[in-house]
Amino acid sequence: MTSNAPIAKGRTAPDATGVPVRLRGVRRAFGRTTALDGLDLDFAPGELVALLGPSGCGKTTALRILAGFETADEGEVLMDGEDVADVPANRRDIGMVFQSYSLFPNMTAAENVGYGMRVRGAGRRERRERAAELLALVGLPGREGHYPHQLSGGQQQRVALARALAVEPRVLLFDEPLSALDAKVRLQLREEIRRIQLESGITTVFVTHDQEEALSLADRVAVMRDGRLEQCAPPAELYARPATPFVAEFVGTMNRIPGTVRDGGEVEALGRRLPVHGSAPAEGTEVDVLLRPEELAVRAAEDGTATVQVATFLGGLTRLGLRTEAGLEVKADLPSREAAALAPGARCTLVPHDGAVLVADRSAAG
Amino acid sequence: MAGLKTAAPPAPAAGAERPAPPARPRTARRRRGVGSLFVLFLAAAYFLVPVAASLWFTVDDAGKGISFDAYAKGLTDDGLATSLLTSVLLGLATVALGLLLMVPTLVVVVLRLPRLRRLVEVLCMVPLIVPPIALVAGVSTVLSWEQELASTPFYRTFQLLQNKDFPLVLVLIYTVMSLPFLYRSLDAGLRAVDLRTLVEASRSLGASRTATIYRVVVPNLRSSVVSGAVLSLAMVLGEYTVATVLGFEPFAVWMVHVGEYEAQLSVAAAMLSLLLTWGLLLLLTNIAGGRARNRRTTA
């Protein structure tokens, strides 16, 4: 696990109006299943943090505890320094966008957007004007009178976003809001959410299982596993310097290459000795060396130890699927210009990069 | 493309007659149409013949021909108006009490205690399998304690329950009897909406639990609330066993009493009650459908 201290100032709005949020040693169990096991996480004012992890890792439970829909068995939930553990959901000043379309079917888009203001006692005219303003902000001008069933999925999520913003929340929570949308709409809406979040400067927590979404959207990504935080870092750091083998393999594509730990904190793999990132296991230990596809150089060689199985053109890059003589499946990314000579069936050699590598217990594969 | 050419049917020679379209499907369609009409006719006859026969019975006067005397007599009879009003009020009170009990209960079960859903369903279905006579026998036993409780505050409660003008005890019993109808309708409505998300969305926007039920849950259960209410109301308007055993005279009991000495008036009252039930049904259906129509017209 690594530090989860928030970044001082990333892409967040310079005049952020959000509040700091803290989760301190939060535990939550459902029967015998532990959903959160002492989660510590800080969110800076105006920051967008994505909670990323496989199903059942506890990310949604953490979000629901922040929202007030679940109660922590232990630990503290602090918003702007105030412990909100006993504050009911309707008094937390949060805005939430849900995975399923959560618009009230009996209300128009404008009525949905104005709902939070209505329960706060705002007048009809004020609600109408604010709804029109917010619907325009999310790209739906003139749809005030439309009912949810008259809107597409993407439009409904835009209205849900406008509705969450209408109450001027201290914290915005997103529970996989794009997962039910098609790819094109998802991309558009993702950019809209980021633009609006930056403009409003509201502290935002975004739960997703889509790593591309998390990496492209967030100031920091918190990777969770089995109710615990594995690493929370800006996307580039998370990708380039994963703290644990789990993060390394969960974020992006990763090869596992068998190796043996040698003296001097090095590991031998693919015929080369490479420095180990962090503390190395005992000498002689059989490990897996974790290498990203772009960290492997591939050179055409008649006497090479690997064969190209498949070449997938990805524009500037070509991804090669290779098989070594030992039967190991490896992926490598090459500039497409260099990959031209490596057609399927070609023999080649694999050369890992010179930097420090992460190693994992071989039994923990998969 | 070559494949497509060979697969294409040959063009008819000049002057050759076009082959007649196959007659079989049209005949089959016609047969199906006749069959549907026959079924529709049978169903209509099943429902309409008794109504028409009753109507004829009420207006046929052996000496004068067609006469509406039975209806005129019924409309001016104090007994009909009083008993009908009692039944309608009992029905409305039953519906109100039933909904007040069932809507929050089912919402809590869906949101907080989903494991109890099956148990609640079984409990709500019990009145369907317990005959009304068994139910009223139990209630009669309890009501017979009245004299024994004369010196306690319960005595007044017992008297209030059996008030002849508005027997509250019937409302309580009818509420129990209406549970299956209300449960089935509300359960179907609750399954059709993502209640948990709607409630959580409402709460996250600052609404209290009461406001959430009033502004979000009930409006989205509107049609199931109305259908449960219609079924319960119809049940109360036609209920005879419980009322007659307990000695009250709502509409159904009055109708049977009148039928003993004035059959034509009794059947005329039945026809009037049929009209009233249909009217209430249409009214409630319109209330439920009104919002949906508004939504369509706003599009």
If you had to describe this structure to a student in words, what would you say it looks like?
The complex is a heterodimer of chains A (366) and B (299). With 366 residues, chain A is α+β, with helices and mostly antiparallel strands. Chain A has 2 domains: 21-244, 3-Layer(aba) Sandwich (Rossmann fold), CATH 3.40.50; 253-364, OB fold (Dihydrolipoamide Acetyltransferase, E2P). Chain A has 9 helices and 20 strands. Chain A has helices at residues 59-67, 109-119, 124-137, 153-166, 183-200, 211-217, 235-240, 245-250, 336-339, and strands at 21-30, 33-43, 48-52, 74-79, 82-83, 94-97, 171-175, 203-208, 220-225, 228-233, 255-262, 266-269, 272-275, 286-291, 296-300, 306-313, 317-324, 329-335, 347-352, 358-361. In chain A, the strands form 4 sheets. A 6-stranded mixed β-sheet of chain A has the order 6-7-8-3-9-10, sandwiched between helices. Chain A has a 5-stranded antiparallel β-sheet with strand order 13-12-11-14-20. A 5-stranded antiparallel β-sheet of chain A has the order 15-19-16-17-18. Chain B is an all-alpha fold and 299 residues long. Chain B has a domain at 86-261: MetI-like fold. In chain B, 78% of the residues lie in helices and 1% in strands. Chain B contains 14 helices and 2 strands, in the order H-H-E-E-H-H-H-H-H-H-H-H-H-H-H-H. Chain B has helices spanning 2-7, 24-59, 69-76, 78-111, 117-129, 132-143, 154-161, 168-192, 195-204, 209-220, 222-238, 241-246, 251-261, 263-298; strands at residues 60-61, 65-66. A two-stranded antiparallel sheet of chain B has the order 1-2. In chain B, helix 8 (168-192) runs antiparallel to helix 11 (222-238). Chain B starts with a helix and ends with a helix. The A-B interface holds A 67-69, 88-96, 98, 100, 102-106, 108, 115-116, 119-120, 145-147, 149-150, 160, 163-164, 167, 173 and B 193-194, 197-198, 200-208, 211, 215-216, 219-220, 222, 291, 295, 298-299.
